[in-house]
Structure formats: C-alpha cells, structure tokens
Design brief:
The protein has 234 residues and is mostly helical. It is built from twelve helices and no strands. It has a domain at 140-234: Serine Threonine Protein Phosphatase 5, Tetratricopeptide repeat. It starts with a helix and ends with a helix.
C-alpha cells in the first residue's frame, strides 16, 4: 500500500512538473507575444527580401554578365598577346574580364571572370596580379577551382613561399580528376622532398600509385616513391 502511494506521488509530481513547464511556456508567450511576433515577422521579411533580391536583381544581373563574357572568351581562345589584352581589358566594343569582375561582383560570372583574368596575367608574366585574381576565384566549378589551387601553389613555390605552396597543392590534391590530381600530388611530394620530409613525400607518392596508377606509371613516380622510402627508413 505504501509503495502504491509513493508511485502515485511520483506520478503526480511528474504530471505537475509537465504542467508547470507548459504553464511557463504559455506565460512566457503571453508576456512576450509582441516581441515573438515581431521576430517572426522580421525573419519572414529577411527571407522574402533575399528571395526577391536573388530573383529580381541577382539572377538578371548574372544573365547580363554571362552575355558579356562571350566576346572576351573568344579573344581569350585566340591566345595571341593582342587578343589576350583585349580579353582582359576590353576595348570600345566589349567589356573585358576586369570590368566584368568589377561591375558584377556578386555574380557567378564575376567569379569566372576572376579566373580568366588571373590566367591572362599569368600568360603575360605578371605573377603578382595573376595570384591576386586567382585567389579571388571561389569554389564554383570544381575542376577549374582545383586547377587554380595548383597554379596558386606554383606561384607561391616560385616566390619561395614553400609553406603556402604546400597549402594550395594540398587543396588541389583533393580533386578526383585523373589529370590534375596526380600532377598536384607529384608537386607536393617534390616539395616534401626538398624539406626532407621523407615520410610525407612517401605517403604522397603512394597516393598516386593507389588512386591514379596509370599516371603513376606514365610519370615515373615509382623512382620517387622508392627514393622517399629509402630515406624515410633511415
């Protein structure tokens, strides 16, 4: 009997606890109804504003920028110095990549224009400007982005900033592309060798063998792997 009373008491306490919790929520809502309602309205306004901004401003802006990209890409494809300069800076008839990147900053097209501008500066031998624009290129197109990271790694390597070169080669190595990834891995392995980080070099070359065996054979990575293994075991 006493046990039943204790169980009943515990059950009542549990029920009362739930009721008290719900009461607190209801009381809180009643006392702060205007504030809560205002917050909800604010959230809806922000979400609605973002959707409207994307639909009525950003999307048309991106379409306009995309149309403007056609001509500079054609000049870029020609490859000669005069055409590359027109593609970069434009002329009286067309906007170049620099203008598109500047005037349409919020668009995906401007992001792509940054990549093209960086590549042209690289072709022109202006490495500082090339680095600046390639760093502005954000991850939109995976293959192009990974390739850009490898190029950035090359530029830092030429500037003898080995730590940053390694940082960007590592990003490039995350690609699954069978052309770019093994090249980036090989360059990363070479930097590790230069730093005499033989275990890291061995692991990097091993990744080429494990994931890109055909390229491993074609690139002669087996010799590098063997060398790194010998020094790593010393």
């Amino acid at each position: 009997m006493a046990t039943s009373e204790k169980l009943g008491t515990k059950k009542n306490e549990h029920v009362q606890g739930k009721e008290n919790f719900l009461t607190k929520i209801i009381n809180f809502y009643n006392h702060n109804e205007k504030i809560i309602f205002g917050i909800l309205i604010g959230i809806l306004v922000i979400v609605g504003g973002l959707l409207a901004f994307n639909k009525f401003y950003l999307k048309p802006l991106n379409q306009k920028a995309s149309a403007l990209m056609v001509q500079p890409i054609k000049f870029f494809a020609q490859g000669d110095s005069a055409s590359l300069n027109i593609a970069l800076e434009g002329n009286d008839d067309i906007d170049g990549f620099l203008t598109i990147a500047s005037d349409f900053k919020l668009t995906k097209t401007a992001n792509t224009a940054n990549l093209y501008a960086g590549l042209i500066y690289l072709k022109q031998g202006n490495k500082e400007e090339a680095l600046d624009y390639l760093l502005k290129f954000k991850k939109k197109e995976d293959v192009l982005w990974y390739n850009a990271q490898a190029i950035i790694g090359d530029l830092y390597d030429e500037m003898e900033d080995t730590d940053k070169a390694i940082q960007y080669y590592k990003k490039a190595c995350e690609s699954e592309n069978s052309f770019y990834a093994p090249i980036a891995l090989f360059k990363l392995g070479q930097l590790y060798e230069r730093q005499e980080k033989w275990e890291d070099a061995y692991e990097t070359y091993q990744m080429i063998e494990d994931n890109f065996y055909q390229q491993y054979i074609n690139m002669g990575v087996d010799k590098c792997l063997e060398r790194a293994k010998i020094y790593a075991e010393k």
